[in-house]
Amino acid sequence: MKKLLLLSFVLFALMGCESNSDEDQSSDETPLLAPTVEGKWLYDVTANLPNTMYEFMDGTRYTYYNDSEDYSVEFWESLNTADAIPGTHEYTFQNDTLTIDLNFGNVQILPLIFECDGDRINFQDPEHADRHNLVRLGSDCN
Length: 142
Known about the structure:
Layout (H helix, E strand, L loop, with lengths): L1 H27 L10 E5 L8 E6 L2 E6 L7 H6 L10 E6 L2 E5 L5 E9 L4 E4 L10 E3 L6
Antiparallel strand pairs: 1-2, 1-8, 2-3, 3-4, 4-5, 5-6, 6-7, 7-8
């Protein structure tokens, strides 16, 4: 009986050690951050220079237009919410779906996939397969 009890104790202790070593290893790993829509995004258009930027901030989407000939990252970065066109839209991002309230009962629901380390939004909308994707301002996604 003592041998059985001793064997059970040893096995339990070994299993406990394995569990602790797994916990130690997982705590050393860098946790993966979930991609976010927060930030400034330009249309991903290859043939033309982008003239529209969207900024997603704290549940509000702001829209900016560029009517100059300066399409540099510095130009877009210099814009703030005072430069946005009048009228904002509330949004939520949950379970890889971006939902934008376009006001007056109109809602845009956009299933999406993040690409390029979270710097490109690939819209997965079967009804609008030609929809332009968005690229995070300042990213190096080609």
